[in-house]
UniProtKB/TrEMBL annotation:
Coiled coil: none annotated. This is FAD-dependent monooxygenase. The keyword Oxidoreductase applies. It comes from the Bacteria. The keyword Hydrolase does not apply. Residues 3-82, 127-312 form the FAD-binding domain. It holds the Pfam family FAD_binding_3. GO terms for molecular function: monooxygenase activity. InterPro entries: FAD-bd (IPR002938), FAD-dep_Monooxygenase_BioMet (IPR050493), FAD/NAD-bd_sf (IPR036188). Keywords: Monooxygenase, Oxidoreductase.
Amino acid sequence: MRATIIGGGIGGLALALALLRNGWEVEVRERSADLPSGGTGLGMWPEAMAALDSLGVGDAVRKQSVHCAGGALLRADGTIIAGLGAERSAHLVARNTLLRTLYAALPPEAVRWNSPYSPEQGFPGGDLLVGADGIHSSVRSAVLPGVGPRKLGTTAFRGVIAGRVGTVSETWTRGGLFGITPAGGNGINWFAALRSELVPAGDHLDSAGFLRRFFDGAHPAVRAVVDTLTPDRIDRRTLLDVQLTGSYVSGRTVLIGDAAHAMAPNLGRGACETLLDAVALADALAGSQDLDSGLRQFDRVRRPVGRRMVRLARVLNRAATAKHLLPVRNGLVSAAARFGA
């Protein structure tokens, strides 16, 4: 069996590795010239680490990550809205580190760089076409014309600075949030999300200065980070998600990862769900009598999960960046955390 995978990101590389281990022939087509050199941190929850273990790269990721257990949701003044128990643990790894680790486990000839795909090219031959090409998926455009990303109404800023922190925190203010996590070595991973109407329009925004002003009234841990920011080290983007109403499968084409269920970052599970897609698809194909039944099995298992995660992430995105009724919101979140919701 032969698969063409469009997209050399986390999902594409993980699926290529899984299929090769199951005896498939695989070609990954990636439009970029090489792996990215930068990238902020990703949380690998236990299910994602189990997926990486099944691919044979779990230990390599652990050696290059920071293990964190628990954390806290905070008000702007630093008081706790809700604590995240130690049972909620994750390995924090830089995106480019995870990509390099997956790529190193593949034969070099498995990936074709500088190889974009467009809907006009049609089915590339072989037995299976996989759209692992992200939120603006060309493969999705080919099989589901008119289905695309939706705006969440929030704008994200993120980056990595020098320094050390020992805990994970997310501070919810009026209209925005600010997160801080360890980044490994001498690094701090930070991220912010604000209601888009609160962010000045235009491409020439001084993001560092704007964030310092916006979070001026926040507690010292947030101000210590924003005071060090420089505009050239900040990634800014409008947040989007994707919610498919139908199957992830169309004939011999299947969508995984952000192509199928891009979600707001608030759950911290986008990369995790992509890895779980890759392993589930390879397992379903290996455990089925034919390609069609394997694809149907994958869709039955993963589509309900993807749809649920997109919905939950969108709700949490709105709640975390709310501008009104903050005491009510905080009380509900605190109560939910106490009762294990």
